[in-house]
């Protein structure tokens, strides 16, 4: 039989990557953070001062962007042209611009192509926005995660605060709302639940409960 793909999509800061990592670790699957790829492309464009509103200018430099993953302990270590950028891609300049970059057609085509290659022969858990709809429409298991927006902002705020002492909860809330708006309304593969995706609202669930929920869905395919 073929390899198993678990697709985890949903809104920003819903705990997708926390669940995806735990699931991959438990099952010995490969974890791929597709959002990190859009973030790394965004970082490259910002550093090069490329006009993000100019799709042709963005497309022209895409061949200069080489992304690689180093999987250590099921964390995401992403390399942009051999430089580890895992921390820098989480900072506000990238977070504020990534959804605009992710709306560009040529960027999505390139990322989707690379993502499909990663899931062609291996068992993987991939999280993102269009994994169950566009990247792997035939994934055996599709989860669509959601949670109360206030709870999501508080979680993300706690995560960012240690390294960003000036950040405010309002700023984080606004960024999440803005990204969700752009992600759900863009023309090119917008964030939407695949018809066969199972909804997982984790507002009141512990990480352990979420893991068990997901394991139960994958079990029949093992
Ligand atoms: O998952 P994360 O929040 O790091 O993703 C950052 C941004 O990348 C999202 O807000 C979205 O604009 C974009 N993205 C996407 N498709 C994916 C993964 C992420 O458009 N599969």
Q: In a few lines, what is going on in this structure?
A:
The chain has helices at 16-27, 34-47, 55-61, 92-101, 105-118, 131-135, 149-160, 169-185, 207-218; strands at 5-10, 30-33, 67-72, 75-80, 83-84, 124-128, 141-146, 198-201. The protein is of the alpha/beta class.
What does it look like?
This protein is an alpha/beta fold and about 220 residues long. The chain has a single domain, classed as Rossmann fold (3-Layer(aba) Sandwich). About 45% of the residues lie in helices and about 20% in strands. The chain has helices spanning about 15-25, 35-45, 55-60, 90-100, 105-120, 130-135, 150-160, 170-185, 205-220, and strands at about 5-10, 30-35, 65-70, 75-80, 85, 125-130, 140-145, 200. The strands form 2 sheets. It has a 5-stranded parallel beta sheet. Strands 3-4-5 form a 3-stranded antiparallel beta sheet, with helices on one face. Helix 2 packs across helix 4 and helix 4 runs parallel beside helix 8. It binds cytidine-5'-monophosphate (C5P). Cytidine-5'-monophosphate binds near residues 34 and 129. It is found in: Cytoplasm. Belongs to the cytidylate kinase family. Type 1 subfamily. It comes from Mucilaginibacter straminoryzae. Keywords: ATP-binding, Cytoplasm, Kinase, Nucleotide-binding, Transferase.
